[in-house]
Amino acid sequence: MHPLDALNEIAYLLERERSSRYKSKAFRAAAAAIDGLGDAELRDPALSRRKGIGDSTLAVIRQALAGEVPERLARLRAEAAPVAGSLRAQLRGDLHSHSDWSDGLTSIDLMVGAARALGHEYLALTDHSPRLTVANGLSAERLRAQMNVVATHRYDDFTLLSGIEVDILDGGGLDQTDALLDGLDVVVASAHSKLRMEHVPMTRRLVAAVRDPRVDVLGHVTGRLVEGSRGTRPPSTFDARAVFAACAESGVAVEINSRPERQDPPDELIALALEAGCLFSIDSDAHAPGQLSLLDHGAARAERAGVPAERIVTTWPLDRLRTWLRRSR
After folding, report:
1. H or E segment at 161?
2. CATH dotted code for 3-79
3. Above 90 in pLDDT, residue 84?
4. pTM of this prediction?
């Protein structure tokens, strides 16, 4: 295989397993460093002194040039066996992803390329809103600029949707202007702060958010973390029946977040949302191209929980999805 393909695939698989971002960035930097080089330049001993090339990436380049599948790549491929299931094959897109405009690792173009390689028909770009400064949330000015960039992405077989993961404020308001939210294709509303709020005010907060006519998806509803480098975090407490009743009434989809460290909502809340008549959106919450394939995990959870494909908006074709996104509230 070509060394460029090997480096990019290793970066992708490191992202999928949520490895240290420095590791995946090192392989992407090496790929950028050799992009466009000819065979003679790749075999030149001076390559080791080129900016962006380190010992690990040089070893991959040399093994690929020798006609081998690099050892690092072979190991990652073996560890990344896809999760099988009929529901995964029915997913057409993803309504929650991030780029380097906020706290994602790569450009919009790389995220789009990865989504298209997975066979997706659409992807919503949903970078963070301004209050989440730790995630480089987009100010109104930066969001307008991003919307203009998204508008330039036109494909025959794929659609990039403009969007935002807007922070749910303490009182249930949304962390962006109504006018800008009205101009987006997709609005995912998520709570990122004060997750230990008391049961009653947290219920009011979430219900107010999903009743906002601009909201399409309620993201990672409990905020819990069950594994991973960030440690664990207990779920927020709230009246799930009241929140899901509001979602069903407003046509807001409950997100099944595919990140293994979240597994949010918990199984018992998926059951309550099913009972309430909610729609669902299986999303990757990807912060790098390789993480778009985490949809495998969300689809497997939804399938085990008995969520019908018909009630999952990300199984719908784009025309039907757009009709739902434009629904009257």
Report:
1. strand 159-167
2. 1.10.150
3. no
4. 0.88
